[in-house]
Amino acid sequence: xxxxxxxxxxxxxxxxxxxxxxxxxxxxxxxxxxxxxxxxxxxxxxxxxxxxxxxxxxxxxxxxxxxxxxxxxxxxxxxxxxxxxxxxxxxxxxxxxxxxxxxxxxxxxxxxxxxxxxxxxxxxxxxxxxxxxxxxx
Length: 137
Hints:
Elements: H1 2-20, E1 40-46, E2 52-59, E3 66-70, E4 82-87, E5 90-98, E6 102-112, E7 115-124, E8 127-136
Antiparallel strand pairs: 1-2, 1-8, 2-3, 3-4, 4-5, 5-6, 6-7, 7-8
């Protein structure tokens, strides 16, 4: 009887050990950095001034959810970059000052790998403009 109890206990330990060691089917997969799909040099065609220019998007080294948009709104090359928050396939630019006192805010949506559609507000010298632009690369 004592040997039977030990045999049952040994079988239970083996069964529980093998069940607990099976890998899950729902293995975590790291989706990568959402910002990476936005990084690069983009050609811009915009509605407000009917102009074409380039914007360079880079990862913000100080925040893992943000990107820097150099020349966003086309204020010129010597101004600080606008800061955007990336969430999935969107970039959100909250109300911030760029250029010579320009205020900008808006949203860009990555609709294809090489296309971002933007809607944004730009306030220059008290005049508010509602703009759209298309970023392509």
